[in-house]
């Protein structure tokens, strides 16, 4: 399988970047996008050239570390899959693949395709915690939670924080990401004390770093965890609830 790659090369945050063309005559359909970059880097190392920098960790679709734009789409051509699970079988022999970092004003480039996504971390730091009494663990049946609510909370807790939703949004919004956290924590019995404060602080932090929701749903289309678009509605719902109930809850 022959592919032509246009890979983003940028020496550092303040350096000017450009695409570097790489011909790959021996790609294999079963390769993932990351394995394709590994293949290119191995050749570069053997030739004494500097390999391309990109981020990855578990390569099992769990950690959210890998994040790329492939032909302008976060992660790759397949819907709701991270870059590590995107296979070249989705492309054709002779295709041109433009591989670059996730594009958003909130994601400054560190080097090549590695970007700083700490703005997402700052959103969670504002409210991603709960108050519990320290000491002996409670009995399993002390806090009651029905199966449907638990499953809904888990569906929203599945977000891996890859940031693809932000890169897909033309406004660079993080409403799907923030909404998934707010829904997850609001459904559980623990953490009720912080619910209002959490909403105010997380939403304020989100609006400081990210844009307004485009209302088109590009975010849910690329989310590897399949977070439903309804999570976006949690932003206004939790904000209104916090304003109505007041300062403490």
From TrEMBL:
SUPFAM superfamilies noted in UniProt: 2Fe-2S ferredoxin-like, alpha-helical ferredoxin
UniProt keyword ATP-binding, yes or no: no
EC number: 1.3.5.1
Record's keyword terms, sorted: 2Fe-2S, 3Fe-4S, 4Fe-4S, Iron, Iron-sulfur, Metal-binding, Oxidoreductase, Tricarboxylic acid cycle
One GO MF term: metal ion binding
Catalytic activity: a quinone + succinate = fumarate + a quinol
Co-factor: note: Binds 1 [2Fe-2S] cluster.
Gene3D superfamilies linked: 3.10.20.30, Alpha-helical ferredoxin
Residue span(s) of domain 4Fe-4S ferredoxin-type: 150-179
Cited Pfam families: Fer2_3, Fer4_7
GO biological process: respiratory electron transport chain; tricarboxylic acid cycle
Group of enzyme by EC: oxidoreductase
Reported cofactor(s): [2Fe-2S] cluster; [4Fe-4S] cluster; [3Fe-4S] cluster
Claim: Metal-binding is one of the keywords in the record: yes
Highest rank taxon of the organism: Bacteria
Domain 2Fe-2S ferredoxin-type: 1-102
InterPro entries, A to Z: 2Fe-2S_ferredoxin-like_sf, 2Fe-2S_ferredoxin-type, 2Fe2S_fd_BS, 4Fe4S_Fe-S-bd, 4Fe4S_Fe_S_CS, Beta-grasp_dom_sf, Helical_ferredxn, SDH/FRD_Iron-Sulfur
PROSITE patterns (alphabetical): 2FE2S_FER_1, 2FE2S_FER_2, 4FE4S_FER_1, 4FE4S_FER_2
Family: Belongs to the succinate dehydrogenase/fumarate reductase iron-sulfur protein family.
This protein's name: Succinate dehydrogenase iron-sulfur subunit
High-level lineage: Bacteria, Bacillati, Actinomycetota, Actinomycetes, Mycobacteriales
């Amino acid at each position: 399988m022959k592919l032509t790659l246009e890979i983003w090369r940028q020496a550092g945050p303040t350096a000017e970047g450009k695409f570097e063309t790489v011909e790959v005559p021996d790609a294999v359909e079963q390769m993932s996008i990351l394995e394709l970059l590994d293949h290119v880097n191995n050749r570069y190392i053997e030739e004494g050239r500097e390999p391309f920098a990109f981020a990855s960790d578990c390569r099992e679709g769990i950690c959210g570390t890998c994040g790329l734009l492939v032909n302008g789409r976060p992660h790759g051509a397949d819907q709701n899959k991270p870059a590590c699970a995107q296979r070249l079988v989705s492309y054709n022999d002779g295709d041109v693949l433009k591989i670059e970092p996730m594009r958003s004003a909130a994601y400054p480039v560190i080097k090549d395709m590695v970007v700083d996504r700490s703005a997402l971390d700052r959103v969670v730091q504002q409210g991603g915690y709960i108050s519990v009494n320290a000491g002996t663990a409670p009995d399993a049946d002390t806090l009651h939670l029905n199966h449907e609510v638990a499953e809904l909370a888990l569906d929203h807790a599945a977000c891996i924080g890859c940031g693809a939703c932000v890169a897909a949004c033309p406004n660079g919004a993080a409403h799907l990401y923030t909404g998934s956290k707010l829904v997850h924590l609001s459904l559980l019995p623990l953490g009720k004390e912080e619910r209002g404060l959490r909403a105010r602080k997380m939403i304020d932090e989100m609006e400081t770093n990210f844009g307004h929701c485009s209302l088109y749903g590009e975010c849910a289309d690329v989310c590897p965890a399949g977070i439903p678009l309804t999570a976006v509605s949690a932003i206004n719902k939790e904000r209104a609830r916090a304003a109505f109930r007041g300062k403490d809850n």
